[in-house]
Design goal:
alpha/beta; 6-stranded parallel beta sheet; 10 helices; 49% helix; 12% strand; elongated
């Protein structure tokens, strides 16, 4: 068995961030009466939020913005698309969103099945996530994933971010793994896959979106979690 330590990403790889964000934002849309405030189209608001969130996360990974700025600004920009410039509403939405989001439990198909399969084969499973410490642990607890993972390495805990090599070095040190017996599994080419390449670690690109053109060439590519059985 070449690999012993399997390092998973969480959001967009196992835990369906977009679906869980949608459910959470729908509840806030009703609770905060956003329609009456001028957000006339929830679908457009949700799509815009995802675009702003992705762009801000990219800036966060590159060190251009802080964690607290990301949390509020994604709400502020999504509201601004509807000509609502309301700092207090943006802050309130950010707080409520981070309270509700981690309690959502929508996972990608076969998530628990494949994690149990890997555990039964004696692989040691860990997480490397750029997500926030408290939020990520809550997601794991509520979705029933916490029992599968031995170590959870976050950007806060490691004081680094994927794709930086340092977060992978920290993960290896914390788990007692080595580059040669470890592999990274994630959905993001420029964070998970490039980060593992930077660290010298093999990678599995979990291609939920069916991307066909890749400048980065992962060690393995799967289109669903079920296909991991073909590798491990």
């Amino acid at each position: 068995m070449k690999y012993r330590h399997l390092f998973f990403d969480l959001d967009h790889t196992l835990w369906d961030f977009d679906a869980n964000a949608r459910v959470t934002l729908e509840s806030l849309y009703e609770e905060l009466q956003l329609k009456e405030r001028g957000v006339h189209d929830f679908e457009l608001f949700y799509r815009n939020y995802l675009v702003h969130n992705d762009k801000l996360w990219e800036r966060y990974r590159k060190g251009f913005i802080r964690q607290d700025e990301l949390r509020v600004k994604r709400m502020w920009l999504a509201l601004l698309d509807f000509k609502i410039a309301d700092d207090e509403l943006s802050k309130a939405m950010s707080i409520l969103f981070l309270e509700k989001l981690p309690t959502r439990t929508i996972l990608f198909p076969h998530t628990k099945e494949i994690l149990q399969y890997l555990k039964d084969k004696s692989y040691q499973l860990h997480l490397i996530t750029n997500g926030f410490e408290k939020v990520q642990h809550s997601k794991l607890k509520y979705s029933g994933l916490d029992t599968f993972f031995e170590e959870v390495i976050t950007s806060e805990g490691s004081n680094s971010l994927k794709p930086n090599k340092e977060i992978f070095d920290y993960a290896l040190q914390k788990t007692g793994a080595t580059i040669n017996n470890s592999i990274m599994l994630g959905d993001t080419l420029d964070a998970d896959i490039q980060g593992a390449i930077n660290a010298g670690m093999d990678q599995v690109f979990v291609n939920h979106l069916g991307i066909t053109e890749m400048e980065i060439k992962p060690t393995y590519v799967v289109n669903s979690l079920k296909e991991l059985e073909q590798i491990f």
